[in-house]
Protein backbone atom coordinates (compact mmCIF):
# COMPACT_ATOMS: atom_id res chain seq x y z
CA UNK A 1 0.00 0.00 0.00
CA UNK A 2 1.21 3.52 -0.80
CA UNK A 3 1.92 5.85 2.14
CA UNK A 4 0.30 9.31 2.19
CA UNK A 5 2.64 11.57 0.23
CA UNK A 6 3.58 15.19 0.08
CA UNK A 7 3.34 16.64 -3.46
CA UNK A 8 5.56 15.16 -6.13
CA UNK A 9 9.05 16.72 -6.44
CA UNK A 10 10.71 16.90 -9.85
CA UNK A 11 14.36 16.00 -10.47
CA UNK A 12 16.52 15.69 -13.56
CA UNK A 13 18.06 12.56 -12.05
CA UNK A 14 16.99 10.27 -9.22
CA UNK A 15 19.75 7.90 -8.07
CA UNK A 16 18.69 4.88 -6.00
CA UNK A 17 21.54 3.53 -3.84
CA UNK A 18 24.42 5.41 -2.23
CA UNK A 19 27.28 2.93 -2.79
CA UNK A 20 30.23 3.10 -5.19
CA UNK A 21 28.11 3.39 -8.36
CA UNK A 22 25.34 5.66 -7.09
CA UNK A 23 27.70 8.11 -5.37
CA UNK A 24 29.81 8.48 -8.53
CA UNK A 25 26.77 9.28 -10.68
CA UNK A 26 25.19 11.63 -8.14
CA UNK A 27 28.32 13.65 -7.35
CA UNK A 28 29.22 14.30 -11.00
CA UNK A 29 25.64 15.06 -12.07
CA UNK A 30 25.18 17.39 -9.08
CA UNK A 31 28.38 19.27 -9.82
CA UNK A 32 27.32 19.63 -13.44
CA UNK A 33 24.26 21.54 -12.24
CA UNK A 34 21.53 18.92 -12.61
CA UNK A 35 18.76 18.67 -10.03
CA UNK A 36 19.71 15.34 -8.42
CA UNK A 37 18.09 13.26 -5.66
CA UNK A 38 20.10 10.43 -4.07
CA UNK A 39 18.07 7.88 -2.11
CA UNK A 40 19.86 5.52 0.29
CA UNK A 41 18.09 2.96 2.46
CA UNK A 42 20.73 2.16 5.07
CA UNK A 43 21.14 5.46 6.90
CA UNK A 44 24.71 6.07 5.73
CA UNK A 45 26.47 6.50 2.41
CA UNK A 46 29.30 4.35 1.11
CA UNK A 47 27.56 1.04 0.40
CA UNK A 48 29.11 -2.35 0.61
CA UNK A 49 32.60 -1.43 -0.54
CA UNK A 50 33.14 0.97 2.35
CA UNK A 51 31.26 -0.82 5.12
CA UNK A 52 31.38 -4.58 4.52
CA UNK A 53 33.48 -5.12 1.39
CA UNK A 54 36.67 -3.74 -0.15
CA UNK A 55 37.78 -1.41 2.62
CA UNK A 56 37.37 -3.52 5.79
CA UNK A 57 38.60 -6.65 3.98
CA UNK A 58 41.80 -4.91 2.86
CA UNK A 59 42.33 -3.43 6.33
CA UNK A 60 41.89 -6.89 7.89
CA UNK A 61 44.29 -8.42 5.35
CA UNK A 62 46.87 -5.82 6.32
CA UNK A 63 46.76 -6.87 10.01
CA UNK A 64 47.04 -10.47 8.86
CA UNK A 65 50.04 -9.63 6.66
CA UNK A 66 51.84 -7.94 9.54
CA UNK A 67 51.22 -11.02 11.69
CA UNK A 68 52.65 -13.18 8.92
CA UNK A 69 55.75 -10.99 8.54
CA UNK A 70 56.35 -11.16 12.30
CA UNK A 71 56.41 -14.94 12.05
CA UNK A 72 58.71 -14.72 9.04
CA UNK A 73 61.35 -12.70 10.94
CA UNK A 74 64.11 -15.33 10.48
CA UNK A 75 63.72 -15.06 6.66
CA UNK A 76 65.08 -11.54 7.06
CA UNK A 77 67.72 -12.18 9.70
CA UNK A 78 65.48 -11.16 12.60
CA UNK A 79 64.19 -13.05 15.61
CA UNK A 80 60.82 -14.70 15.02
CA UNK A 81 58.06 -13.00 16.98
CA UNK A 82 54.85 -14.94 17.49
CA UNK A 83 52.18 -12.24 17.24
CA UNK A 84 49.68 -11.98 20.09
CA UNK A 85 46.34 -11.70 18.37
CA UNK A 86 43.74 -9.39 19.86
CA UNK A 87 40.74 -9.65 17.53
CA UNK A 88 39.08 -6.75 19.36
CA UNK A 89 42.05 -4.49 18.58
CA UNK A 90 42.15 -5.71 14.98
CA UNK A 91 38.45 -4.96 14.67
CA UNK A 92 38.99 -1.46 16.08
CA UNK A 93 41.69 -0.76 13.50
CA UNK A 94 39.45 -1.98 10.68
CA UNK A 95 36.65 0.23 12.04
CA UNK A 96 38.97 3.24 12.27
CA UNK A 97 40.00 2.88 8.62
CA UNK A 98 36.33 2.68 7.57
CA UNK A 99 35.53 5.73 9.68
CA UNK A 100 38.36 7.78 8.14
CA UNK A 101 37.05 6.98 4.67
CA UNK A 102 33.42 7.56 5.71
CA UNK A 103 34.35 11.25 5.78
CA UNK A 104 34.62 11.12 1.97
CA UNK A 105 31.04 9.91 1.84
CA UNK A 106 29.65 12.51 4.27
CA UNK A 107 26.12 13.43 3.09
CA UNK A 108 27.03 17.12 3.58
CA UNK A 109 29.71 16.78 0.92
CA UNK A 110 27.09 15.62 -1.57
CA UNK A 111 24.62 18.31 -0.47
CA UNK A 112 27.37 20.84 -1.20
CA UNK A 113 27.46 19.44 -4.76
CA UNK A 114 23.75 20.26 -5.04
CA UNK A 115 22.53 16.69 -4.43
CA UNK A 116 19.41 16.19 -2.32
CA UNK A 117 20.32 13.24 -0.07
CA UNK A 118 17.30 11.29 1.20
CA UNK A 119 17.64 8.40 3.64
CA UNK A 120 14.76 6.02 2.84
CA UNK A 121 14.09 2.79 0.96
CA UNK A 122 13.04 3.60 -2.58
CA UNK A 123 10.47 1.84 -4.72
CA UNK A 124 8.91 2.59 -8.07
CA UNK A 125 5.32 3.80 -8.35
CA UNK A 126 5.51 4.01 -12.14
CA UNK A 127 8.30 4.46 -14.73
CA UNK A 128 9.10 8.02 -13.64
CA UNK A 129 7.96 8.18 -10.01
CA UNK A 130 9.84 6.81 -7.02
CA UNK A 131 8.53 6.64 -3.50
CA UNK A 132 11.11 7.44 -0.81
CA UNK A 133 9.59 7.47 2.68
CA UNK A 134 6.75 9.95 2.55
CA UNK A 135 8.12 11.70 -0.53
CA UNK A 136 7.42 11.09 -4.19
CA UNK A 137 10.30 11.90 -6.52
CA UNK A 138 9.68 12.37 -10.21
CA UNK A 139 12.86 11.57 -12.15
CA UNK A 140 13.28 12.56 -15.76
CA UNK A 141 16.00 9.97 -15.67
CA UNK A 142 16.63 7.39 -12.95
CA UNK A 143 19.71 5.35 -12.00
CA UNK A 144 19.46 2.04 -10.20
CA UNK A 145 22.52 1.35 -8.04
CA UNK A 146 21.19 -0.89 -5.28
CA UNK A 147 24.11 -3.34 -5.23
CA UNK A 148 23.95 -6.96 -4.12
CA UNK A 149 23.65 -9.17 -1.04
CA UNK A 150 25.28 -12.47 -0.09
CA UNK A 151 23.77 -15.43 -1.98
CA UNK A 152 23.40 -18.15 0.65
CA UNK A 153 23.08 -21.72 -0.67
CA UNK A 154 20.20 -23.85 0.41
CA UNK A 155 22.15 -26.36 2.53
CA UNK A 156 20.10 -28.35 5.07
CA UNK A 157 21.07 -27.39 8.62
CA UNK A 158 22.91 -24.20 7.63
CA UNK A 159 20.25 -21.73 8.82
CA UNK A 160 19.88 -23.56 12.14
CA UNK A 161 23.66 -23.70 12.63
CA UNK A 162 24.05 -19.95 12.11
CA UNK A 163 26.78 -18.50 9.90
CA UNK A 164 28.69 -15.36 9.09
CA UNK A 165 28.74 -13.55 5.77
CA UNK A 166 30.79 -10.49 4.84
CA UNK A 167 28.09 -8.48 6.63
CA UNK A 168 29.11 -9.93 10.04
CA UNK A 169 32.76 -10.66 9.52
CA UNK A 170 34.28 -7.29 10.23
CA UNK A 171 32.59 -7.05 13.65
CA UNK A 172 34.17 -10.28 14.88
CA UNK A 173 36.03 -9.64 18.14
CA UNK A 174 36.17 -13.14 19.64
CA UNK A 175 39.44 -14.95 20.28
CA UNK A 176 40.68 -17.08 17.39
CA UNK A 177 38.97 -20.46 17.11
CA UNK A 178 38.15 -22.60 14.13
CA UNK A 179 36.44 -21.42 10.95
CA UNK A 180 35.09 -23.24 7.91
CA UNK A 181 34.85 -21.00 4.86
CA UNK A 182 32.34 -22.16 2.25
CA UNK A 183 33.30 -20.83 -1.18
CA UNK A 184 36.69 -20.42 -2.86
CA UNK A 185 36.10 -17.20 -4.80
CA UNK A 186 37.73 -13.85 -3.96
CA UNK A 187 35.85 -13.40 -0.65
CA UNK A 188 36.56 -16.95 0.54
CA UNK A 189 40.22 -16.84 -0.44
CA UNK A 190 40.96 -13.41 1.03
CA UNK A 191 39.14 -14.10 4.29
CA UNK A 192 40.46 -17.65 4.73
CA UNK A 193 44.01 -16.29 4.55
CA UNK A 194 43.27 -13.30 6.78
CA UNK A 195 41.70 -15.39 9.53
CA UNK A 196 44.38 -18.09 9.32
CA UNK A 197 47.14 -15.54 9.72
CA UNK A 198 45.24 -14.05 12.64
CA UNK A 199 45.50 -17.38 14.43
CA UNK A 200 42.32 -19.20 13.38
CA UNK A 201 42.27 -22.83 12.25
CA UNK A 202 40.73 -22.45 8.80
CA UNK A 203 39.26 -24.98 6.37
CA UNK A 204 38.43 -23.61 2.93
CA UNK A 205 35.75 -25.61 1.13
CA UNK A 206 35.46 -24.94 -2.58
CA UNK A 207 32.84 -26.77 -4.62
CA UNK A 208 34.71 -26.14 -7.88
CA UNK A 209 37.83 -28.01 -9.00
CA UNK A 210 40.13 -25.12 -8.08
CA UNK A 211 40.27 -21.82 -6.21
CA UNK A 212 39.39 -18.65 -8.15
CA UNK A 213 38.07 -20.64 -11.12
CA UNK A 214 37.92 -17.55 -13.36
CA UNK A 215 41.70 -17.11 -13.14
CA UNK A 216 44.57 -18.76 -14.99
CA UNK A 217 44.87 -22.33 -13.68
CA UNK A 218 48.56 -21.83 -12.78
CA UNK A 219 47.51 -18.83 -10.69
CA UNK A 220 45.01 -21.00 -8.81
CA UNK A 221 47.74 -23.58 -8.15
CA UNK A 222 50.24 -21.02 -6.82
CA UNK A 223 47.56 -19.53 -4.60
CA UNK A 224 46.53 -22.89 -3.23
CA UNK A 225 50.14 -23.73 -2.36
CA UNK A 226 50.53 -20.35 -0.62
CA UNK A 227 47.37 -20.84 1.44
CA UNK A 228 48.45 -24.33 2.40
CA UNK A 229 51.88 -23.01 3.40
CA UNK A 230 50.02 -20.62 5.72
CA UNK A 231 48.23 -23.61 7.23
CA UNK A 232 44.81 -23.26 5.57
CA UNK A 233 43.26 -26.69 4.92
CA UNK A 234 42.15 -26.27 1.31
CA UNK A 235 39.59 -28.71 -0.05
CA UNK A 236 38.45 -28.45 -3.64
CA UNK A 237 35.59 -30.40 -5.19
CA UNK A 238 34.08 -30.03 -1.72
CA UNK A 239 30.33 -29.60 -1.93
CA UNK A 240 28.64 -29.20 1.45
CA UNK A 241 25.57 -31.42 1.60
CA UNK A 242 24.44 -30.85 5.18
CA UNK A 243 25.42 -29.08 8.40
CA UNK A 244 24.84 -30.97 11.66
CA UNK A 245 25.86 -30.29 15.27
CA UNK A 246 29.48 -31.19 16.07
CA UNK A 247 31.18 -31.57 19.45
CA UNK A 248 32.46 -29.20 22.12
CA UNK A 249 34.76 -26.56 20.53
CA UNK A 250 33.91 -27.56 16.98
CA UNK A 251 30.20 -26.91 17.13
CA UNK A 252 29.45 -27.66 13.48
CA UNK A 253 30.09 -30.70 11.34
CA UNK A 254 29.83 -30.13 7.60
CA UNK A 255 29.00 -33.28 5.69
CA UNK A 256 30.40 -33.23 2.19
CA UNK A 257 29.05 -34.93 -0.93
CA UNK A 258 32.08 -37.29 -1.02
CA UNK A 259 31.12 -38.70 2.38
CA UNK A 260 33.85 -36.89 4.37
CA UNK A 261 33.35 -34.22 7.04
CA UNK A 262 34.84 -30.90 8.06
CA UNK A 263 34.41 -29.43 11.54
CA UNK A 264 34.55 -25.89 12.84
CA UNK A 265 33.19 -23.61 15.54
CA UNK A 266 32.26 -20.88 13.04
CA UNK A 267 31.06 -20.85 9.46
CA UNK A 268 31.60 -18.21 6.81
CA UNK A 269 29.44 -18.34 3.70
CA UNK A 270 31.20 -16.81 0.69
CA UNK A 271 29.37 -18.39 -2.23
CA UNK A 272 28.66 -15.37 -4.39
CA UNK A 273 26.17 -12.54 -4.53
CA UNK A 274 22.60 -11.84 -5.55
CA UNK A 275 21.54 -8.50 -7.04
CA UNK A 276 19.37 -6.36 -4.74
CA UNK A 277 16.08 -5.90 -6.57
CA UNK A 278 13.49 -7.03 -4.00
CA UNK A 279 11.12 -4.33 -2.83
CA UNK A 280 11.90 -1.95 -5.70
CA UNK A 281 8.73 -2.83 -7.64
CA UNK A 282 10.71 -2.90 -10.87
CA UNK A 283 7.66 -4.21 -12.76
CA UNK A 284 5.93 -0.89 -12.10
CA UNK A 285 8.81 0.80 -13.92
CA UNK A 286 9.02 -1.69 -16.79
CA UNK A 287 12.56 -2.75 -15.79
CA UNK A 288 13.34 -6.36 -16.69
CA UNK A 289 15.76 -8.80 -15.07
CA UNK A 290 18.07 -11.22 -16.88
CA UNK A 291 18.24 -14.99 -16.29
CA UNK A 292 20.56 -14.50 -13.28
CA UNK A 293 18.20 -12.08 -11.53
CA UNK A 294 20.35 -9.04 -12.38
CA UNK A 295 18.89 -5.92 -13.98
CA UNK A 296 19.32 -6.37 -17.73
CA UNK A 297 21.21 -3.49 -19.36
CA UNK A 298 22.62 -2.73 -22.78
CA UNK A 299 26.17 -1.44 -23.30
CA UNK A 300 24.97 2.10 -22.62
CA UNK A 301 23.79 0.88 -19.19
CA UNK A 302 20.15 1.43 -20.20
CA UNK A 303 17.55 -0.93 -18.78
CA UNK A 304 14.48 -2.14 -20.68
CA UNK A 305 12.92 1.23 -19.69
CA UNK A 306 15.25 3.47 -21.70
CA UNK A 307 15.25 6.45 -19.28
CA UNK A 308 16.25 4.17 -16.38
CA UNK A 309 19.92 3.20 -16.14
CA UNK A 310 21.67 0.70 -13.87
CA UNK A 311 25.24 0.49 -12.58
CA UNK A 312 27.26 -1.78 -10.30
CA UNK A 313 26.41 -5.11 -8.69
CA UNK A 314 22.68 -4.84 -9.41
CA UNK A 315 23.42 -5.31 -13.13
CA UNK A 316 26.95 -6.77 -13.23
CA UNK A 317 28.23 -8.55 -15.24
CA UNK A 318 31.05 -8.52 -12.65
CA UNK A 319 31.04 -7.21 -9.11
CA UNK A 320 33.82 -4.72 -8.53
CA UNK A 321 33.77 -1.25 -7.09
CA UNK A 322 35.86 0.06 -10.00
CA UNK A 323 33.38 -1.44 -12.47
CA UNK A 324 30.50 0.37 -10.73
CA UNK A 325 32.52 3.62 -11.01
CA UNK A 326 33.32 3.00 -14.67
CA UNK A 327 29.67 2.28 -15.48
CA UNK A 328 28.75 5.49 -13.64
CA UNK A 329 30.93 7.35 -16.15
CA UNK A 330 29.06 5.68 -19.02
CA UNK A 331 25.74 6.77 -17.47
CA UNK A 332 26.96 10.36 -17.06
CA UNK A 333 27.87 10.47 -20.74
CA UNK A 334 24.53 9.01 -21.81
CA UNK A 335 22.11 10.56 -19.32
CA UNK A 336 23.77 13.95 -18.79
CA UNK A 337 25.74 14.70 -21.97
CA UNK A 338 23.44 12.60 -24.19
CA UNK A 339 26.42 10.95 -25.85
CA UNK A 340 25.92 7.33 -26.99
CA UNK A 341 28.86 6.04 -24.89
CA UNK A 342 29.17 2.27 -24.49
CA UNK A 343 30.86 0.25 -21.75
CA UNK A 344 33.94 -1.61 -22.99
CA UNK A 345 35.09 -4.32 -20.59
CA UNK A 346 37.97 -5.63 -22.74
CA UNK A 347 40.50 -4.20 -20.33
CA UNK A 348 38.64 -4.48 -17.02
CA UNK A 349 41.23 -5.32 -14.36
CA UNK A 350 40.58 -7.46 -11.28
CA UNK A 351 42.70 -8.24 -8.25
CA UNK A 352 42.30 -10.72 -5.43
CA UNK A 353 44.23 -9.28 -2.49
CA UNK A 354 45.58 -12.53 -1.12
CA UNK A 355 49.32 -13.00 -0.54
CA UNK A 356 50.46 -13.46 -3.27
CA UNK A 357 47.98 -11.16 -4.99
CA UNK A 358 46.29 -12.44 -8.12
CA UNK A 359 45.83 -9.70 -10.72
CA UNK A 360 44.38 -10.06 -14.16
CA UNK A 361 43.33 -8.05 -17.22
CA UNK A 362 41.99 -9.07 -20.65
CA UNK A 363 41.82 -12.71 -21.66
CA UNK A 364 43.46 -15.59 -19.82
CA UNK A 365 45.57 -17.92 -21.96
CA UNK A 366 42.79 -20.56 -21.85
CA UNK A 367 40.08 -18.06 -22.82
CA UNK A 368 42.20 -16.70 -25.68
CA UNK A 369 42.94 -20.23 -26.85
CA UNK A 370 39.23 -21.07 -26.89
CA UNK A 371 38.31 -17.83 -28.63
CA UNK A 372 41.07 -17.57 -31.24
CA UNK A 373 43.30 -20.65 -31.27
CA UNK A 374 46.35 -18.81 -32.66
CA UNK A 375 47.66 -17.33 -29.41
CA UNK A 376 50.89 -17.61 -27.45
CA UNK A 377 51.59 -17.05 -23.77
CA UNK A 378 54.92 -16.31 -22.08
CA UNK A 379 55.68 -16.44 -18.41
CA UNK A 380 58.37 -14.87 -16.24
CA UNK A 381 58.83 -15.92 -12.61
CA UNK A 382 59.39 -13.62 -9.65
CA UNK A 383 61.99 -16.14 -8.43
CA UNK A 384 64.23 -14.85 -11.28
CA UNK A 385 63.67 -11.16 -10.55
CA UNK A 386 66.30 -9.27 -8.56
CA UNK A 387 63.92 -7.07 -6.58
CA UNK A 388 61.65 -9.97 -5.65
CA UNK A 389 64.63 -11.81 -4.19
CA UNK A 390 65.76 -8.73 -2.28
CA UNK A 391 62.26 -8.42 -0.85
CA UNK A 392 62.08 -12.12 0.05
CA UNK A 393 58.88 -12.32 -2.05
CA UNK A 394 59.67 -14.72 -4.83
CA UNK A 395 56.39 -16.59 -5.18
CA UNK A 396 54.49 -16.13 -8.43
CA UNK A 397 54.81 -15.07 -12.03
CA UNK A 398 53.58 -12.81 -14.80
CA UNK A 399 52.01 -14.45 -17.83
CA UNK A 400 51.29 -12.38 -20.92
CA UNK A 401 48.99 -13.54 -23.70
CA UNK A 402 49.77 -12.45 -27.27
CA UNK A 403 47.83 -12.69 -30.50
CA UNK A 404 49.10 -11.52 -33.86
CA UNK A 405 51.77 -9.38 -32.24
CA UNK A 406 49.45 -7.67 -29.73
CA UNK A 407 49.09 -8.09 -25.97
CA UNK A 408 45.54 -9.29 -25.27
CA UNK A 409 45.76 -10.47 -21.68
CA UNK A 410 47.94 -10.61 -18.58
CA UNK A 411 47.92 -12.42 -15.26
CA UNK A 412 50.29 -11.43 -12.49
CA UNK A 413 50.50 -13.51 -9.33
CA UNK A 414 52.92 -12.15 -6.80
CA UNK A 415 53.96 -9.34 -4.50
CA UNK A 416 51.93 -6.17 -5.14
CA UNK A 417 50.57 -7.73 -8.34
CA UNK A 418 47.66 -5.28 -8.33
CA UNK A 419 50.06 -2.32 -8.36
CA UNK A 420 51.83 -3.86 -11.37
CA UNK A 421 48.65 -4.12 -13.40
CA UNK A 422 48.20 -0.58 -14.80
CA UNK A 423 50.93 -0.83 -17.47
CA UNK A 424 49.41 -4.13 -18.58
CA UNK A 425 45.89 -2.69 -18.51
CA UNK A 426 47.11 0.11 -20.80
CA UNK A 427 48.72 -2.49 -23.02
CA UNK A 428 45.51 -4.53 -23.38
CA UNK A 429 43.33 -1.43 -23.69
CA UNK A 430 45.57 0.16 -26.32
CA UNK A 431 46.17 -3.16 -28.11
CA UNK A 432 49.88 -2.45 -27.66
CA UNK A 433 52.67 -4.50 -29.17
CA UNK A 434 55.30 -6.26 -27.04
CA UNK A 435 57.86 -3.69 -28.19
CA UNK A 436 55.84 -0.94 -26.47
CA UNK A 437 56.73 -2.56 -23.15
CA UNK A 438 60.19 -3.79 -24.19
CA UNK A 439 61.32 -0.36 -25.43
CA UNK A 440 60.22 1.48 -22.27
CA UNK A 441 63.03 1.79 -19.73
CA UNK A 442 61.97 0.21 -16.44
CA UNK A 443 63.73 1.39 -13.29
CA UNK A 444 66.02 -1.23 -11.75
CA UNK A 445 65.39 -3.06 -9.46
CA UNK A 446 61.60 -2.93 -9.46
CA UNK A 447 58.88 -5.56 -9.37
CA UNK A 448 57.38 -3.88 -12.45
CA UNK A 449 60.26 -5.32 -14.47
CA UNK A 450 58.36 -8.61 -14.42
CA UNK A 451 56.20 -7.50 -17.39
CA UNK A 452 59.29 -6.68 -19.41
CA UNK A 453 60.77 -10.08 -18.56
CA UNK A 454 57.66 -11.83 -19.92
CA UNK A 455 57.91 -9.74 -23.10
CA UNK A 456 61.60 -10.65 -23.40
CA UNK A 457 60.54 -14.29 -23.42
CA UNK A 458 58.30 -13.48 -26.38
CA UNK A 459 61.22 -11.91 -28.24
CA UNK A 460 63.69 -14.53 -27.02
CA UNK A 461 61.97 -17.19 -29.09
CA UNK A 462 62.16 -15.00 -32.17
CA UNK A 463 65.56 -13.37 -31.70
CA UNK A 464 67.95 -16.22 -30.94
CA UNK A 465 67.28 -18.12 -34.16
CA UNK A 466 69.89 -19.39 -36.67
CA UNK A 467 68.50 -16.99 -39.33
CA UNK A 468 68.98 -13.96 -37.05
CA UNK A 469 72.51 -15.16 -36.13
CA UNK A 470 73.37 -15.38 -39.85
CA UNK A 471 72.00 -11.87 -40.42
CA UNK A 472 74.06 -10.44 -37.52
CA UNK A 473 77.22 -12.13 -38.88
CA UNK A 474 76.52 -10.78 -42.37
CA UNK A 475 75.97 -7.18 -41.12
CA UNK A 476 79.18 -7.31 -39.07
CA UNK A 477 81.22 -8.56 -42.01
CA UNK A 478 79.84 -6.03 -44.49
CA UNK A 479 79.50 -2.87 -42.45
CA UNK A 480 82.87 -1.40 -41.49
C1 LIG B 1 34.07 -8.99 1.24
C2 LIG B 1 34.07 -8.21 -0.05
C3 LIG B 1 35.23 -7.64 -0.50
C4 LIG B 1 35.24 -6.92 -1.69
N1 LIG B 1 36.42 -6.39 -2.11
C5 LIG B 1 36.46 -5.72 -3.27
C6 LIG B 1 37.67 -5.17 -3.72
O1 LIG B 1 38.72 -5.30 -3.09
N2 LIG B 1 37.69 -4.48 -4.89
C7 LIG B 1 36.54 -4.31 -5.62
O2 LIG B 1 36.60 -3.67 -6.67
N3 LIG B 1 35.36 -4.82 -5.19
C8 LIG B 1 35.29 -5.52 -4.05
N4 LIG B 1 34.11 -6.03 -3.61
C9 LIG B 1 32.90 -5.77 -4.42
C10 LIG B 1 32.35 -4.34 -4.16
O3 LIG B 1 32.11 -4.16 -2.78
C11 LIG B 1 31.06 -4.12 -4.95
O4 LIG B 1 31.27 -4.47 -6.30
C12 LIG B 1 30.61 -2.67 -4.89
O5 LIG B 1 30.39 -2.27 -3.55
C13 LIG B 1 29.33 -2.49 -5.69
O6 LIG B 1 28.91 -1.15 -5.62
P1 LIG B 1 27.39 -0.77 -5.91
O7 LIG B 1 27.32 0.72 -5.94
O8 LIG B 1 26.88 -1.51 -7.07
O9 LIG B 1 26.57 -1.34 -4.68
P2 LIG B 1 26.71 -1.13 -3.11
O10 LIG B 1 28.02 -0.59 -2.70
O11 LIG B 1 26.24 -2.39 -2.48
O12 LIG B 1 25.65 0.02 -2.80
C14 LIG B 1 24.26 -0.19 -2.95
C15 LIG B 1 23.53 0.73 -1.99
O13 LIG B 1 22.14 0.72 -2.33
C16 LIG B 1 21.39 0.77 -1.14
N5 LIG B 1 20.06 0.26 -1.44
C17 LIG B 1 19.68 -1.02 -1.70
N6 LIG B 1 18.36 -1.06 -1.95
C18 LIG B 1 17.88 0.20 -1.84
C19 LIG B 1 16.59 0.80 -2.00
N7 LIG B 1 15.50 0.09 -2.28
N8 LIG B 1 16.49 2.14 -1.82
C20 LIG B 1 17.57 2.88 -1.52
N9 LIG B 1 18.80 2.37 -1.36
C21 LIG B 1 18.96 1.05 -1.53
C22 LIG B 1 22.20 -0.10 -0.17
O14 LIG B 1 21.87 0.22 1.17
C23 LIG B 1 23.64 0.29 -0.54
O15 LIG B 1 24.12 1.35 0.25
C24 LIG B 1 34.05 -6.76 -2.43
C25 LIG B 1 32.86 -7.34 -1.98
C26 LIG B 1 32.87 -8.06 -0.80
C27 LIG B 1 31.58 -8.68 -0.33
N1 LIG C 1 39.35 -8.29 -4.57
C1 LIG C 1 38.19 -8.11 -5.15
O1 LIG C 1 38.03 -7.40 -6.16
C2 LIG C 1 37.00 -8.77 -4.56
C3 LIG C 1 37.07 -9.31 -3.29
C4 LIG C 1 35.95 -9.94 -2.79
C5 LIG C 1 34.80 -9.97 -3.53
N2 LIG C 1 34.75 -9.41 -4.76
C6 LIG C 1 33.54 -9.49 -5.56
O2 LIG C 1 32.48 -10.03 -4.83
C7 LIG C 1 31.87 -11.07 -5.58
C8 LIG C 1 31.49 -12.19 -4.65
O3 LIG C 1 32.64 -12.94 -4.27
P1 LIG C 1 32.50 -14.43 -3.75
O4 LIG C 1 33.85 -14.94 -3.51
O5 LIG C 1 31.50 -14.48 -2.65
O6 LIG C 1 31.75 -15.15 -4.97
P2 LIG C 1 32.21 -15.92 -6.28
O7 LIG C 1 30.96 -16.23 -7.00
O8 LIG C 1 33.28 -15.22 -6.99
O9 LIG C 1 32.85 -17.28 -5.74
C9 LIG C 1 32.09 -18.17 -4.99
C10 LIG C 1 32.74 -19.54 -5.05
O10 LIG C 1 32.00 -20.36 -4.17
C11 LIG C 1 31.91 -21.65 -4.72
N3 LIG C 1 30.66 -22.25 -4.21
C12 LIG C 1 29.40 -21.93 -4.56
N4 LIG C 1 28.53 -22.69 -3.85
C13 LIG C 1 29.28 -23.49 -3.05
C14 LIG C 1 28.96 -24.48 -2.08
N5 LIG C 1 27.69 -24.80 -1.79
N6 LIG C 1 29.97 -25.10 -1.43
C15 LIG C 1 31.26 -24.76 -1.69
N7 LIG C 1 31.60 -23.83 -2.60
C16 LIG C 1 30.63 -23.20 -3.27
C17 LIG C 1 31.89 -21.47 -6.22
O11 LIG C 1 32.51 -22.57 -6.83
C18 LIG C 1 32.68 -20.18 -6.42
O12 LIG C 1 34.00 -20.40 -6.88
C19 LIG C 1 32.87 -11.52 -6.63
O13 LIG C 1 32.22 -11.72 -7.85
C20 LIG C 1 33.85 -10.40 -6.73
O14 LIG C 1 33.61 -9.69 -7.92
C21 LIG C 1 35.83 -8.82 -5.29
What is the CA-CA span between the terminal residues? Answer: 93 Å
Based on Cα principal axes, name the global outline.
globular
What is the CATH T-level topology of the largest domain? Answer: FAD/NAD(P)-binding domain
Count of folded domains? 3
Radius of gyration: 25 Å
Helix percent reads: 25-40%
Number of strands: 21
What composes the largest sheet? 7 strands, mixed
Q: Give the name of the CATH architecture of the largest domain.
A: 3-Layer(bba) Sandwich
Strand residue percentage: 15-25%
Structural class assignment:
alpha/beta
Q: Which consecutive residue ranges, at least 5 long each, have pLDDT under 50?
A: none
The overall pLDDT, averaged over residues, is 96
What molecules are bound to this protein? Answer: flavin-adenine dinucleotide, nicotinamide-adenine-dinucleotide
CATH superfamily of the largest domain: FAD/NAD(P)-binding domain
Number of helices: 17
Class of the largest domain, according to the CATH hierarchy? Alpha Beta
Keywords: Disulfide bond, FAD, Flavoprotein, NAD, NADP, Nucleotide-binding, Oxidoreductase, Pyruvate, Redox-active center
Binding site for NAD(+): 183-190, 272
Binding site for FAD: 58, 146-148, 313
Family: Belongs to the class-I pyridine nucleotide-disulfide oxidoreductase family.
Amino acid sequence: MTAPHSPEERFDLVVIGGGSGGLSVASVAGRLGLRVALVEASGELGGECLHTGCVPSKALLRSARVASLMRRGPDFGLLAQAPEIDMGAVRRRVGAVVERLQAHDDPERFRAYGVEVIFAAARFLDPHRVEAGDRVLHGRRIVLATGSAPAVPNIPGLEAAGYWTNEDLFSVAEAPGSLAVIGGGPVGVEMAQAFRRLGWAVTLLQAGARLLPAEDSEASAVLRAALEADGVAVRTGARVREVVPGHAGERHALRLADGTEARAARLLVATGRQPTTAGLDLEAAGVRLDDHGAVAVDRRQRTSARHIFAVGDVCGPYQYSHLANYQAGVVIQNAVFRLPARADLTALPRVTYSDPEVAHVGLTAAEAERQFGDVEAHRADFADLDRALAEGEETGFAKLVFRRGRIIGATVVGPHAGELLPQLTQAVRGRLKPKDIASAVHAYPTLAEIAKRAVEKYYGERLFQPGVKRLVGWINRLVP
